Amino acid sequence: MTGTLFVDTNVFVYSRDAREPHKRSLARAWLEYLWREQLGRTSVQVLTEYYNVMTRKMRPAVAPETAWDSVDALFAWNPQVVDQALLERGRAVEARYKLSWWDSLVVAAAESQACAVLLSEDLQDGGTYGTVTVLNPFKTGIAEARARYEATPAAAHRYRPRGRPKRTAGSGA
Fold it and tell me: Structurally, how many domains does the chain consist of?
């Protein structure tokens, strides 16, 4: 894939969840790929949710220091901040697509970071919201996703460009 991918909370959580070994393996593969290719993006909202789930809802709970180390490492992805512009964009997404407020903010953050793909199992796989398409990372492998989202080369123009022809040496023009 040539563009950046936005990662939702559930992918980060499953990468640490021993109760779901299949999803854990897939989430880890996706995150390793995104780190290696430097294609991962997320938001402060997602990191907040991730920290909360890891320290308060995960069984067994992850120590706050360990969860913070994970969040701190993800600052390298330059997470989208929650500011007035994101809230306004999120409200527009909510109104247009009738998503929940939190999902609308995730889509808005993905759009703000020019991500064409949003990795999440919380929204409809293949659903498109503006310029963002949802990909369930637990249904689609990396190789399949790469084939689907690789940029295809632009077709050669069938017609001459408009305007004056270029001068060639010795044309006298």
Answer: 1
Check which CATH number belongs to the domain holding 75 and give it: 3.40.50.1010
* DSSP sequence for the chain: --S-EEE-HHHHHHTT-TT-HHHHHHHHHHHHHHHHHT-EE-BHHHHHHHHHIIIIISSSPPPHHHHHHHHHHHGGG-PBP--HHHHHHHHHHHHHH---HHHHHHHHHHHHTT-SEEE-SSS-TT-EETTEEEE-TTTS-HHHHHHHHSPPPPPPPSSPPSSSPPP-TT---
For residue 101, give its domain range.
5-146
Model pTM score: 0.84
Any domain includes 103? yes
Mean pLDDT by 10 residues, the chain (173 residues): 90 95 97 97 98 95 96 97 98 98 98 97 96 96 82 44 55 55
